[in-house]
Amino acid sequence: MIFGKDAFGGQARCDIAKHDWPTPPKPQSCELDYGQGLVVGSRRKASFVCAGDTTLHQGKALPIGQAVELGPYKCKSLPGAMRCINRDTGHGFKLSRQVAKRF
């Protein structure tokens, strides 16, 4: 999980190395790697990542039950999953080996 900037000011992103859910078809607008995680920005519903980089192994793992917050974003480590939300919009995601849920 990593916090960063998008065109509108911020985002929370989480990539996953292995998953059982089907990766959605890559949109024509994505010229990089697609579907390796989820990202939520400042204005829209969460979406699948289109990027040429990864957030995997970027710092220490967040212990289960703990959360990190930055600006409107809050990400919490759950048993077997990560849940991130933009508290201003209510949009976010839950990402695990079994599910990639966007809201």
Summarize the model shown.
The protein has 103 residues and is mostly beta strands.
Biggest β-sheet: strands ordered side by side in the sheet: 5-6-7-8-9
Succession of helices and strands: EEEEEEEEE
Helix/strand structural class: mainly beta
Number of helices in the DSSP assignment: 0
- Overall pLDDT: 91
How helical, in percent, are the residues?
under 10%
Shape: globular
Count every beta strand, where a strand is a DSSP E run of 2 or more residues.
Answer: 9
Distance between the first and last residues' Cα:
17 Å
Kindly provide the radius of gyration, computed on alpha-carbon positions and rounded to a whole number of angstroms: 13 Å
* Main sheet overview: 5 strands, antiparallel
What percentage of amino acids are in beta strands? Answer: 35-45%
Molecular structure report:
By secondary structure, the chain is an all-beta fold. Helices cover 0% and strands 45% of the residues. The chain has strands at 2-4, 11-15, 33-41, 47-51, 67-70, 73-78, 81-86, 92-96, 100-102. Strands 5-6-7-8-9 form a 5-stranded antiparallel β-sheet, with no helix packed on it. It is globular and about 35 Å long. The two termini are 17 Å apart. The mean pLDDT is 91.
List keywords for this structure.
globular, 0% helix, 103 residues, four-stranded antiparallel β-sheet, five-stranded antiparallel β-sheet, mainly beta
Give the SSE map.
Elements: E1 2-4, E2 11-15, E3 33-41, E4 47-51, E5 67-70, E6 73-78, E7 81-86, E8 92-96, E9 100-102
